[in-house]
Amino acid sequence: MTSRTIFITGAAAGIGRATALTFARAGWTVGGYDVDEAGLASLATEVAASGATAITARLDVSDSAAFAAAVGDFVERTGRLDVLLNNAGILNAGRFEDIDVARHQREVDVNVRGVVNGLHAAHPHLRPGSTVVNLASASAIYGQAELANYSATKFFVRGITEALDLEWGAQGIRVVSLWPLFVETAMTQGVSTGTTESLGIHLGPQDVADQVLAAVTPSRLARTLHQVHFPVGRQTRALSLGSRFSPAWLTRLVNKRLASH
Ligand SMILES: NC(=O)c1ccc[n+]([C@@H]2O[C@H](COP(=O)([O-])OP(=O)(O)OC[C@H]3O[C@@H](n4cnc5c(N)ncnc54)[C@H](O)[C@@H]3O)[C@@H](O)[C@H]2O)c1
């Protein structure tokens, strides 16, 4: 029996890197893919030092052919695909009209197209018992001012997760998403929006990595309740619970207040 395997995009830094190291410490074989080759090289060294196996390669998730080739190569070398983590993402903060349209489009290319490419590339290799984890965000609860396009890409992730949980659930494949609020990584460095100011940044990449592991090995309760979305941190749990039970006008008002400088 070979060790379980996880294929991680955006693995060179931040949440992806913390997750790669967490799974390596748990004895999994880790596939790390990113556009940052220097970051991947140091990740491979760190994984090897923990006694686990890493396969790393450059991959731009917005390139569907390259994504399919990378997953194919990974499965050929490891023999199995237990988890796909669609984690690579980029974020533009600021007023929508002040951000160049090419940057908005690139955000869609990575955060939306990259996820579609990953799901499509992985599906032929997923087996009953496999899990797909997509990185959504607390910004998929309600559209976020000053993160409009980013937030909309995470609504896409939310939607495709729910739909494929239904479609692929029948094949024994779980599809889930994680919803962190702001996490202390390169992505949030220098970002100052109404909500980063009002809510602060209280999560680290390890908090999210631990939640990925928990989502992949769910408790009996999570399995019984068929949990699809996993909020990360107390603030996100409170916000998502609140939005589920409060009327739409109140959710809008709360979000407006949180976003106002
Ligand atoms: N940091 C946060 O506050 C936060 C909150 C909620 C959700 N998320 C989500 O978590 C995920 C990881 O974010 P992070 O905070 O670790 O960011 P990060 O910037 O620290 O790391 C992102 C990694 O993705 C890589 N990447 C970027 N474009 C790529 C591409 N086209 N192909 C392959 N790799 C690419 C980067 O090189 C980097 O290594 C993202 O999907 C993000 O939207 C982050």
UniProtKB/TrEMBL annotation:
<protein>
    <submittedName>
        <fullName>SDR family oxidoreductase</fullName>
    </submittedName>
</protein>
<dbReference type="InterPro" id="IPR036291">
    <property type="entry name" value="NAD(P)-bd_dom_sf"/>
</dbReference>
<feature type="domain" description="Ketoreductase">
    <location>
        <begin position="4"/>
        <end position="211"/>
    </location>
</feature>
<dbReference type="InterPro" id="IPR002347">
    <property type="entry name" value="SDR_fam"/>
</dbReference>
<comment type="similarity">
    <text>Belongs to the short-chain dehydrogenases/reductases (SDR) family.</text>
</comment>
<dbReference type="InterPro" id="IPR057326">
    <property type="entry name" value="KR_dom"/>
</dbReference>
<keyword id="KW-0560">Oxidoreductase</keyword>
<dbReference type="Pfam" id="PF00106">
    <property type="entry name" value="adh_short"/>
</dbReference>
